[in-house]
Amino acid sequence: MEDMRTFSKKVLAVVAKIPRGKTLSYKQVAVRAVSPKAYRAVGNILNKNSVLKVPCHRVIKSDGTPGGYARGSKKKIQILKHEKAI
Q: Which of 8, 19, 33, 49 is the most buried (most CB within 10 A)?
């Protein structure tokens, strides 16, 4: 099993590349970070992220619903609408 810090860096690198107006699911991020079953860990990593350059709000649930966000779900929806991602 890989080091959690290494996986966290991979997750943040994947999320940092999500363009404005686009989203990925937690599972898609996990797959791109080469740990397809670690989608719950992706959510935990993003919830603790404090790097503003990483657009955590662009990661949503597989069913298309927003999911959690450290600044609140309403704020996440507001930002995604502003970016025309939803």
A: 33
Contact 10, 33 (CB under 8 A): yes
Q: Is 60 a catalytic residue?
A: no
Question: Which one of 15, 38, 41, 56 is the catalytic residue?
Answer: 56
Per CATH, is 4-82 categorized as 3.40.50.300? no
* Burial category of 2 from C-beta neighbours within 10 Å (exposed 0-12, middle 13-18, buried 19 and up): exposed
**Secondary structure (3-state) at 54:** coil
